[in-house]
Amino acid sequence: MILGLYSDCHFSISSSILSRINGYKYSERLDMLVNSFKWMYEQFKSNNVDLIINGGDLTNTDLLHPEENSALSEALSYNPGIQELYVLGNHEIKNKDSSISSVSILNGYPNIEVFNKITLIQKGDCNLLLVPYMADKDKYEEIYSTLSNLDKSVSCYVFSHMSYIGENYNNYIETNGLDKERLIYSYPNIKGIWNGHIHNIRDNGIYHQIGSLVGNSFSDSYSEGNPGIVILDTNTNNFIRIPNPYAILFHKMECESIRSLTSKLGKLDKNTGKCIRVEVPSSIKDNIYEYIEQNKNKYNIHEYRIKAKYEKVNNSVNTNETESLSHYRSPYDALKGFIDVQSSLPYEKSDMIKFLDTYIGGTT
After folding, report:
1. Mean pLDDT, the chain, integer
2. CB half-sphere exposure, 236, CA atoms < 13 A
3. Containing domain of residue 316, as a range?
4. In this structure, are 211 and 79 located in the same domain?
5. What residues contact 340, with CB distance under 8 A and at least 6 apart?
6. Domain end call among 221, 243, 265
7. I want to staple 252 with a disulfide (CB 3.0 to 4.6 A). Which of 58, 257, 277, 302 is the partner?
8. Nearest-CA neighbor of 7 among 88, 65, 106, 68?
9. Cβ(210)–Cβ(161) under 8 Å?
10. 68 and 215: one domain?
11. Tens digit of each residue's pLDDT (9 = 90 or more) over 173-225
């Protein structure tokens, strides 16, 4: 059986500094997600996928904005008819027992089924154990007892949206999650543990982090691969990862000069869309701003922020405090930029901008 895996899309109008910028049809982020889904389903079809498993957090909250709902509906319409099993994630849950969530409506799609409880499914030559996010740690034992009752001669795969003991989340070590060591050594029929929830890719023995389909924030790491999908063959237990060419990635860097910034940007894939956060000495922040503005298209930069480090001046300032600087050079430019991308305003857009220019004015 060939499985197609993806996870942690976090359908939302904006993400981190990728603000609500009007795209071709929706916001820039939602356009990116719709394009990603179209690409993903084409990949699943061309790789003869029999079954799709979504590792959770399809949406970013338990409430959907109309624009998010419309974009999600379009994205799912590209599914070529392949059955899709959905493991509920923590971002979508409204109540503790997970009976109410933002993705419950997906059960109305003929080829999608949402799982909000631990469920064992027999498919082909193996068992699939689906483990949605569980806030109640007392239910963890149900996972182990379910595995104990399985036929040890039949291969089993665990697909979850959970925290696992020992995992590192931005320098925080999880101590209260599922025990993957217990899963690995007590149940030898488990051939793979595939987990959503953590956006970064990781392959360690039979434990795998699916990773996110797209970039989400500056906490993402691409050290072991860019966001994308997984094609898993349960007959051979082999898998391939395919990076998503539509993903907008988040990169943060420290630079002491334009030359060092140029060097670091030059090492990134120019064909991949990106958001960057650059920390620089305050004395060169304006020069950095000008350089990025002039080279946004060259490096495929969709959005950026500059953080300026304060420096010593006559020994009177001794601090490593930072300030956040939008890519807008003044409040006037920021307000004008905000008006320019809004689709619904109480007055004509041109009249509002004319008012700003006439009565407020600013640097351009």
Report:
1. 87
2. 7
3. 249-360
4. yes
5. 349, 353
6. 243
7. 277
8. 88
9. no
10. yes
11. 777 888 889 999 899 999 999 999 989 999 999 999 999 999 999 989 898 99
